[in-house]
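Trying the structure run again after the queue cleared.
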Amino acid sequence: MASYLQIADDEKGHELDLFCVPKHYENDLDRVIIPHGLIMDRTERLARDIIRDMGGHHIVALCVLKGGYKFFADLLDYIKALNQNSDQSLPLTVDFIRLKSYCNDKSTDSVKVIGGDELSNLTGKNVLIVEDIVETGRTMQTLLSLLSECNPKMVKVVSLLVKRTPRSSGYRPDYIGFEVPDDFLVGYALDYNEYFRDLSHICVLNDQAKEKYRV
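Done. Tokens:
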């Protein structure tokens, strides 16, 4: 069972004016729920856990774009630092895939995979999938099903966030950063219709912003 840091449903978070938030987003956010520093500390610990469990294997780290890119980059930086400063190391190569399952603020039943024809390159490989957030779990289950057809040697999944939601399929990743309430979260590369990727902290989006940036 993966360990994680739980953000409670009644977590009040932090006032925006206590943090550096881009001025163009000040009226769009309800509160800061996970400050950037806490994200980085938790990511460092996940890197240590991954090296402990997967060290000695040659791993292909598969980044799920677009939302996963920031977590992916920071996680790999921590793995690289541990590789240089510990007795156990983890040889790494990287690859990328893009999945799309959102329309505005709703996760849809339709999962669009971009770059899936390249998954055949992962046959016989040890794969670490790096994801930003698992909500219903159906997106990740679709990717794992596609991957299984390519016969990888081993597959592990690390997700920065897992959302507590009644819509969940029950799927849980192997490594989890934070378990979060069923709010729409943005920042640290998580977006709403491509906005808010340039926000350092993970914040709760307010209802006015959902209308403002709706497509």
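The radius of gyration is 17 Å. Worth checking whether this holds up in the mutant runs.
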